[in-house]
């Protein structure tokens, strides 16, 4: 059985719909937090009055929530690196309730923290390498397509890998 034309360059990113929803939602959230005076509230249907209410009555909460989202997604990885590699430099007493909890983990479970940190990296790299194996076994030989699968799987893990696992290349009958 031979491969159908195009299988060697197959790549499918995650759902464009969800990428668009996430990008537009985050873009709108950024607009609301930083430039609320420029929003045409009256042109947004039911979203307009709701957004205006949030801006007028809860702008500080919106602003803090925005930075909390960044803190969670970016900060957690940096914090994990700090805890694992430089625990002696952490000002535990300045971290509020997180300080004693972190100090307890560092003092009593540092090996578990270190191993968990490296395990998370290993899982992401392993998934990405497995994506390369799957590419080859499914006849995806195009270097750019393989790189895209590697990067997407590294960033999104099993969400990307499941798309590649489900892919069934078309086969042509040999004559």
UniProtKB/TrEMBL annotation:
Q: How does it sit in the membrane?
A: Multi-pass membrane protein
Compartment(s): Membrane
GO CC terms: membrane
Is NAD one of the keywords?
A: no
Where is it chiefly localized? membrane
Residue ranges annotated as transmembrane are 16-35, 66-85, 116-135, 147-167
Q: What is this protein called?
A: Transmembrane protein 254
Source organism: Myotis davidii (David's myotis)
Instruction: Show the taxonomic lineage.
Output: Eukaryota, Metazoa, Chordata, Craniata, Vertebrata
